[in-house]
């Protein structure tokens, strides 16, 4: 749903079919007047597809790890995902942690601070998102696009792009609205 929100700006809640194996979508974003084509692979979360998804880690330049703020086991699984990433992904892969469903405040079981703490422990950027409202969804993908663009085009005399600082300056804590 987060990927569909980013790609199509829509949320088709309730009517979703679980990802079987792997799915991908392209989106071109503008980063500092340069067009960056993101090819985004959505891997199935279910254990039975694990052998398929492992194969895709190796070529990924960035990985977005999502948990559901209304589902504690999804948060508890993040450590296992990070272990997998270290085993199968490129060493310099950009990792981002997202706590999704920030619109569901009444059902929240994972505190924002706990997401922040875990992200800090692993040195990865973090934000809460909502595929339903669009909150922070564009920011998450844009921050990754910026990081990858800077890595690819960085000149020695240019200031280094700092993804953590960029996100902190842009993110909406409430997850209430899409980027204007
Ligand atoms: N309220 C709310 N519901 C959401 C949000 N994102 C996803 N959902 C709902 O959560 C369910 C699962 O969403 P998916 O995006 O299919 O989750 P997934 O982790 O990709 O699931 P798999 O395809 O099985 O890996 C669906 O019923 C969505 O409608 C959100 O931000 N807010």
Textual characterization of the structure:
It catalyses: GTP + H2O = GDP + phosphate + H(+). This is small monomeric GTPase. The chain has 180 residues and is an alpha/beta fold. It has seven helices and five strands; from the N terminus they run H-E-E-H-E-H-H-E-H-E-H-H. The chain has helices at 2-8, 50-57, 72-76, 78-88, 112-122, 137-153, 163-170, and strands spanning 22-31, 34-43, 62-68, 94-100, 126-128. Strand 4, helix 5 (112-122) and strand 5 (126-128) form a beta-alpha-beta unit. Helix 6 runs antiparallel to helix 7. It is globular and about 45 Å long. The two termini are 20 Å apart. The model is unreliable at 175-180 (pLDDT under 50). Bound molecules: guanosine-5'-triphosphate (GTP).
Key traits:
5 strands; alpha/beta; binds guanosine-5'-triphosphate; 21% strand; three-stranded parallel beta sheet; 180 residues; disordered C terminus; single chain; globular; two-stranded antiparallel ribbon; 7 helices
What is the terminal separation in angstroms? 20 Å
Shape: globular
Q: For the residues shown, what is the average pLDDT?
A: 88
- DSSP strand count: 5
Give the assembly state of these chains: single chain
Bound molecules: guanosine-5'-triphosphate
Strand order of the largest sheet: 3-4-5
Q: What share of the residues does DSSP label as strand, in percent?
A: 15-25%
Q: Note the main sheet.
A: 3 strands, parallel
Number of helices: 7
Low-confidence parts lasting 5 or more residues at pLDDT below 50? 175-180
- In helices, the fraction of residues equals 25-40%
Classification by helices and strands:
alpha/beta
Q: In sequence order, what are the helices and strands, one letter per element?
A: HEEHEHHEHEHH
Whole-angstrom Rg: 16 Å
């Amino acid at each position: 749903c987060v990927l569909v929100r980013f790609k199509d700006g829509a949320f088709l809640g309730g009517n979703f079919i679980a990802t079987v194996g792997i799915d991908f979508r392209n989106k071109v974003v503008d980063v500092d007047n340069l067009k960056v084509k993101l090819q985004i692979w959505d891997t199935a979360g279910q254990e039975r597809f694990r052998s398929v998804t492992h194969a895709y880690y190796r070529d990924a330049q960035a990985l977005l790890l999502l948990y559901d703020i209304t589902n504690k086991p999804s948060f508890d699984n993040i450590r296992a995902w990070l272990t997998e990433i270290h085993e199968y992904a490129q060493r310099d892969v950009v990792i981002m942690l997202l706590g999704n469903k920030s619109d569901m405040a009444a059902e929240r079981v994972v505190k924002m601070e706990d997401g922040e703490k875990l992200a800090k422990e692993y040195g990865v950027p973090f934000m809460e998102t909502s595929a339903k409202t669009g909150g922070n969804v564009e920011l998450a993908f844009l921050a990754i696009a910026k990081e990858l663009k800077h890595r690819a085009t960085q000149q020695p005399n240019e200031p280094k792009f700092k993804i953590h600082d960029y996100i902190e300056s842009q993110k909406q804590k409430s997850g209430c609205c899409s980027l204007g």
